Amino acid sequence: MTTKLELSGGRVLSDRMDGTPTMASPSWWGADTLRIRGRLDDVAVHVRRYTDAARSYVNVPAAVAATETAGAAGLGPAVVSSDVASGELVLADLTETHRTATLADGNTAEFVHSYFEIRSRVGDLKPTVVREATVFDDIRELGFRLGEAGAPVPAELTYFRRVLDDAEKRIKATDFDRELRHGDGNLSNVMVSRTDGSLLLLDWDLAAMIDPFQDLGVALVELAEDEAHARELFEVAYGSFDEALLARCLFYGYADHVRQGMLGMLVDALDPGSFEYSKFGDWQLLRARLALSGTRSGELLRRIDR
Description:
Layout: E1 3-6, E2 12-15, E3 33-40, E4 43-50, H1 52-55, H2 60-73, E5 79-83, E6 88-92, E7 98-100, H3 109-121, H4 135-149, H5 156-174, E8 179-181, E9 190-193, E10 199-201, E11 208-210, H6 212-223, H7 227-238, H8 243-270, H9 275-292, H10 295-303
Antiparallel strand pairs: 1-2, 2-3, 3-4, 4-6, 5-6, 7-9, 8-11, 9-10
Helix pairs in contact: 4-8, 5-8, 6-7, 6-8, 8-9
């Protein structure tokens, strides 16, 4: 049995997976998109089409533009075609040529160097549409959206946001440059070549003009087992050690935990039963609790603007 999927422009994709969906991102198990693998003009492709819930919070024009530009530069999968109106991306199918990165990869020096290097190269991209929002901006927008949706939120979210507001003020006082960055630190959005170990970045939904240390921060909290490990990784990425900049990075990473948790809560409200978002959002909120509770976070906060 062969399933047909009609794409934008009247094209038809023959699905070789008999309609069984595959993963766009293992963190969500592709819950933000309708996804399907198949052949288009005899080329193996992977189609992503944003769900209605995802389209409500993703800046689709910016995400599509970043994906296209990254693909053309060899930093992401090649884009066969795209359609902003339908939220559709037709990408080269990497299933046979690449595997998904895991935390175990982060234990190897070769991967770590390659990972930081490809993330920094994003700054050279010039997409036609660019999102401009920090993680703190995203948290404010998600807070508004959660209230609008009448979604239940944990009482501690107020405390998290108060601490992060303080961190944002301290970071702004130090001033920072804005550059295009991928913005998502989840290793499930990294593909590793099965032949030479080279990397590609997936899922450009959070790509934006941001402080480069925000991008480093979300990567650090994903890779590092503890603060001591984060110090080592920071020095690898930055080339030297700086106490204040590490504190800035870590707070950006902690803010990302809160952002991802709030995103999970929002999609739960917009699309009840979307358990992939729910479980990942709950995990991120647990990480936020561990990072922002107690006196340790206050000490780290004071380091930002020393």
